[in-house]
Amino acid sequence: MATKLPKVPVVIVGMGWSGGIIAAELTKAGHKVVGLERGKSRKTEDYYMSHDELRYALRYELMQDLSKETVTFRSNEKVRSLPMRSYGSFLMADGLGGAGIHWNGQNYRFLPYDFEIRSKTIERYGKNKIPEGMQLQDWGITYDQLEPYFDKYEKMAGISGEKEQNKMVGTRSAPFPTGPMKKTPAITMFEEASRKLGFNPYMIPSANLSENYTNPDGIARAACQYCSFCDRFGCEYGAKADPTVTVLPVAEKTGNLEIRTNANVIKILHSGGKATGVVYVNTPTGEEFEQPADVVIMTSYVFNNVRLLLTSKIGKPYDPTTGSGVIGRNYAYQITGGNAFGFYDDQEFNLYAGAGALGSCFDDFNGDNFDHTNLKFLHGANIRFTQAGLRPVAHNPAPKETPRWGKEFKQTTIKYANRFLSVSTQGANLPWKHHYLDLDPTYKDIYGLPLLRLTYDFEDQDREMVKYISEKTTAVMKEMKPSKVETSNTISTYNIVPYQSTHNTGGVIMGSDPSTSAVNNYMQMWDMDNLFVLGASAFPHNSGYNPTGTLGALSYRAAEGILTYLKKGGPLV
């Protein structure tokens, strides 16, 4: 029997980027908020002198314990779904700040095309360009409507970037709050090669601060030290924007936020078409608590948002046979194939210094920035060179013909440790009728609740895109004049290993039609107006970018809507 606690005005489930932004905006406006975080507390001091590649990058110190809760995966409905028992394809964070702690800091805005993808595709190419079974849909909001929230998020986080407007991306109302990061010799080589081929490179927008910065809330942070321990690590300097050094201190300073860590929410309570609170487990003791609330805000990771709605029987589950239902619909991942690799015999680089978002990229083949008329795919990829800092345990570059073990392997990887560059991609992934999330009928977590099941595979659309994009990365790499070039120009079937990207999206998608979306553009559930569901679970497809910048903008818009709801109630339009 759960212990019933006193009712609160607002409860937030998950204290990562979305939860932190909502908490800051609501508490600044005077509202009392309880924030529930399934993992333990985290702060900058936890990472002092913590450059431990084994502990964090390879043994997943900041990640969810898969022995207690995981996901199951199958490539299609004809095969059995099995649990992910060790980390591979993606990493699910655990603890205060969520994935905002271990992210690398690359911070893009989705393109104007993304938000109106169905309308713009049909307008340019006609309905027949969209393959049968591909569930493209507009987001129910335009880039121009979302632009002020992008700007607000970037000023809060101190995103670093070039002052000049790049013509391949959405128009900005203001420059980035801080200038671009340092340009290394290898970045200069990439940009010169790209421009020579007629492309439009720009420095990657970065949440690793390029200079000391104080944001509009008065939060002061120091510049990046280029230590290379960003991705899978917490930042010991506070230079990488994360919720614990930006929005959460602002919320706590108001005195209106109570954070409860080790509070794993297992159920959303509801009655008469309203959310009435949540039930959570104190993970160290196993005690259950019922937390009643006037407003419930879900800001967990994609999989947890979907799973909690399904196990709590909120919203109509998606049915891939009929295409009806919304919870679990439009799951999408990210396509990372098409990379080109250069090995240099006569040139050396300092590749062990870097930062998660240090690099340059171009969008000439992203979104609909190029003509798809005679191509067998839609959308595209961001093409980039990054110098994130190659750590010594995992970085063992060698040409394909090199033995994978023994004396020759060791000699070759030592030779190329600082003589290896890559031009990489981050491709869009579009939704299909047969790609979805639901509850596994067999496997359960430690509380006896069904695990979430992924049904997903790469499609011909993805393979064609990788083949096309690889031609562009190879051309750039060759222009960078290595001694040897290799290209990864094919993908076959998706597997849950090895690591590819943590950019999972969809399952509780936004839109303007309740029959094909779960939330409106304020992230308010169509069927339950006091329940808001935020995060990348709201994305109807995934773009050729990291999702965090768009997630942050949508969170600021949702905060505005929630504040309106707290005053007036009812559906937001």
TrEMBL record:
Q: What is this protein called?
A: GMC family oxidoreductase
* Swiss-Prot/TrEMBL keywords: FAD, Flavoprotein, Oxidoreductase
Q: Name one Pfam family in it.
A: GMC_oxred_N
Glucose-methanol-choline oxidoreductase C-terminal domain residues: 441-554
Domain spans labelled Glucose-methanol-choline oxidoreductase N-terminal? 141-331
GO MF assignments:
flavin adenine dinucleotide binding; oxidoreductase activity, acting on CH-OH group of donors
The UniProt entry, under InterPro entries, shows:
FAD/NAD-bd_sf (IPR036188), GMC_OxRdtase_N (IPR000172), GMC_OxRtase_C (IPR007867)
* Recorded superkingdom: Bacteria
Where does the UniProt annotation place the signal sequence? Answer: none
Report the sequence similarity comment from the record. Belongs to the GMC oxidoreductase family.
